[in-house]
Task: structure prediction
Amino acid sequence: MSYTSKKKQNKTIAILIYIIIAIIIGLGAFVFLSPTFEKNSPKISLKNDVYWNLKSPLKINLSDDNEISSYSITYFDKNNEVKLDTKVLSSTKGSIDLNIIPPNIDFDRKTNTAILKVEVTDTSKWNFFRGNKIIQDINVKIDRKRPEVNVISNSYLIRQGGSAAVVVEVQDENLKDLYITFNNKEKFELFPFYEDNFYIAIIAWPIEIDEFKRVNAVAIDKANNKTVTKVPLYIKSLKVKPDDINISDRFINQVSKDVLTKSGYDIPNSQEEIFVKQNKDIRQENINLIKKTARNNMNKEKISKLDIKTFKRLPGSKTFAGFGERRHYAYNGEKIDEAWHLGMDWASVKKAKIYTTNDGKVIFSDYLGIYGETIIIDHKVGLATLYAHTSRSVVEVNDEVYSGDYIANTGSSGAVFGDHLHFGVLVQGIEVNPIEWLSKSWIRDNITKTINDAKRVINNK
Result:
């Protein structure tokens, strides 16, 4: 073979080697980078330790970066081994929500632990086309006992739009959630009270709910055992005062448009639409924000006593509107909207000074649509006060305020013409009747007495 031919042959071999190396590198890159060969194991939503009452289904989510091809779930305790669920999927999914039914076996009452073995395989071609697999043993704490819930003390009655206090005792070593419900529509958080396992709440009958059905104390443990206990309350209806209000073009042009603009809304075309958007849409948005702000900023410290003084009205003022007035708004003789008035309107002189009655923490100080420049102060146990339409505030969010502190001046900000203070009392963000909280005897009979009665019961246990 000539030198030239040999050189060409070596060159050809070298090129073939380079091609083979490139193919190998390319295949390697494809295997390592292609989603078909992804290397991450599937994920199981349950943590290592879970609670199960062996009555209701256990929720499990299985997920994978690619897709799941099969799974199996097996229950083990000292006496039993039961396959709860196993499946090879014909149509694969990247996420599966399962409700695992408890095993149909006779349980030993002394059995309080078990293991769930969960095996999940994905559709990846990794691991020599066998896919990624995870096997996880999950420790199960078996809890078949419902929480014990006893109502220790509560207010005698509650009025529509009003407040009441409740103290309960709850016994459960695995307690997860605890609250009071009104008609199964509204939930009120319970706060630690006096001694371990005792809780207190001030609750409200929201004014917009006409029918009283039932107030319950609800406790749920980590195994989803649930106890519902009735809170015995007498009820008293609200005498609604209708209030017919004629809306003028001047109010719409000078007030409603201003509120819409400051709240970031577009101005509708017709005068009726402008007012309704301000009075209905922004009002609801403001009410929602009040509720959210109050509930997210409640002081949740343990309560041993509640030093709530009788709230005081604006000094030297007259009442121009009361709580629970049902306002009917008309434009050019036609009714266009209606709404509840949810506070007390007091007026004295322009830019009158506003003082606090009770200690608390400022949790809101800002513009709030129809309420204008507004301050909200939290007083613990979910109780707060609201001061709206102010012209000047001298406090900021997170400021601690004390009884008798000067906090603001009255004004006409928001959806009003005249200078006045809208004073509101909030129970976990719901505006309730301030008249109750302006009464020394009402606070004594409904709040203080409930707390003192509960303490006597606890001390005698």
The radius of gyration is 33 Å. Confidence is low (pLDDT under 50) at residues 27-31. The chain has three domains: 37-142, 148-237, 241-428. The domain at 148-237 is CATH 2.60.40.10 (Immunoglobulin-like).
